[in-house]
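Key idea: predict the complex, not the pieces.
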Amino acid sequence: EIVLTQSPATLSLSPGERATLSCRASQSVSSYLGWYQQKPGQAPRLLIYDASKRATGIPARFSGSGSGTDLTLTISSLEPEDFAVYYCQQRNSWPLTFGQGTRLQIK
Amino acid sequence: EVQLVESGGGLVQPGGSLRLSCVVSGFTFSNYEMNWVRQAPGKGLEWVSYISNSGNSIHYADSVKGRFTISRDNAKNSLYLQMNSLTAEDTAVYYCARVLGQQWLYFDYWGQGTLVTVSS
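Result:
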């Protein structure tokens, strides 16, 4: 099983700042990694798939990068609606696995 | 508009069984692979099970293998999860989730979730 470790667990930033979230895999996932955003009481929303492809309707301020074992989600300039929990998920091998999440909170 | 609506959650005693359903609309169900994903209260996401569009390929998380059974009825636009031998660790909101595309095993549409509580 591929274990995904996200860091930091909590990130405190202000609107307008740049956010960098990390997802480290216990073995290579190639580029087969996605990112989700989840707000309280809501289902997750797919943001990025295959490491760097934006899902339909996702703003350009969200970008993904990396491959292998170190992948990153970057939010270039935080909007108030971006404060949420973010999860990475790999599809490289069964079982599909998620990271434990990074909580992005307002500073 | 794509919609996924889960039902069947509730309170069940340890060792009991429950069957979840997910009815979909707004897309051609038979063309899409589907999954169940769960989230324990205050915790992260856990993938539970996958089924191919035809139902011929199925995968489970180790934590539910041998206890849960995923199935689908393409004629009824419905996905199911039969859950047996439930324990407190199965307490969670269960989401059905559509796969983005063939072999793109990411989840682009989700239901609102149904809460399963295992407790005596």
